[in-house]
Amino acid sequence: DGGITQSPKYLFRKEGQNVTLSCEQNLNHDAMYWYRQDPGQGLRLIYYSQIVNDFQKGDIAEGYSVSREKKESFPLTVTSAQKNPTAFYLCASIGRSNEKLFFGSGTQLSVL
Amino acid sequence: DAKTTQPPSMDCAEGRAANLPCNHSTISGNEYVYWYRQIHSQGPQYIIHGLKNNETNEMASLIITEDRKSSTLILPHATLRDTAVYYCIVRVVETSGSRLTFGEGTQLTVNP
User: Fold this and answer.
1) How far out from the chain centre does Cα B13 lie?
2) What is the mean pLDDT of residues B47-74?
């Protein structure tokens, strides 16, 4: 079955550590997105990518980095510059035409 | 960006129709309206989307006003499992691609 896979489901970060969240899709979608969700809040856009080797900052990109070396993969790195990283992170993808935006099941990141 | 405005919360009696409004007064002619819902700490679930015409699927109906400045999601016979946060989203098309920006959503509570 086609879909989006995020891993790990839970992740813990130590102070000053960079951590990378994985997002893989086998839907042949061009566009991929990363969102952050804080408790009781809506989703905020971190980064998005329309094609391989290209990506744009969303509304809250500071302290995060991404890469898009393959169409299927869009990993998100939470750097040590992100001072408040504890949140639920969601990855999504969509095709060229007006199709559904598919979401992964999310990664809960917490700081030790 | 085309922003959306939704009421923060709504209640509905089980078995009755739930009508969730959304304002998107700055929407452009080629921007679709999407509706998603999210149950606590899960990835958002696609419900329906549309451009101009009213749409219906097995989950819901979407009514878009003629001027496209607002829409209503209708759950015809709400059940307790429909309790969730509902997001109305406009797909914004930019030169760098399309981005989807979520608002705060509406917390729908279906009461027995």
Assistant:
1) 19
2) 94
What distance in Å separates the CA atoms of residue A73 and residue A93, rounded to the nearest whole number?
A: 10
Share of chain B above pLDDT 90, in %: 67
Partner-chain contact A101 B105, CB within 8 Å = no
Contacts of A51 in chain B (CB under 8 A): 97
- Do the Cβ atoms of B32 and A90 come within 8 Å? no
B64-84 pLDDT, tens digit per residue, is 999 999 999 999 999 999 999
**CB-based burial label for A60 (10 Å; 0-12, 13-18, 19+):** middle
Q: How far apart are CA B111 and CA B97, in angstroms?
A: 41
| Non-local CB neighbours of B67 within 8 Å, separated by 6+ positions | none
For the stretch A40-74, pLDDT in tens is 888 999 999 999 999 999 999 999 999 999 999 99
Of the pLDDT bands very low, low, confident and very high (cuts 50, 70, 90), residue B90 is confident
Residue to mutate among A103, A107, A109, A110, with most B CBs inside 10 A, is A103
Q: Hey, are the CB atoms on A90 and B44 less than 8 Å from each other?
A: yes
Report CA B2 to chain centroid distance, whole Å.
Answer: 14
Beta-strand relationship, A54-57 and A10-13: unpaired
Question: Could A50 and B96 be called an inter-chain contact, meaning their C-beta atoms sit closer than 8 Å?
Answer: yes
Q: Does B15 touch chain A (CB under 8 A)?
A: no
| Residue B10 CA from chain centroid, whole number | 13
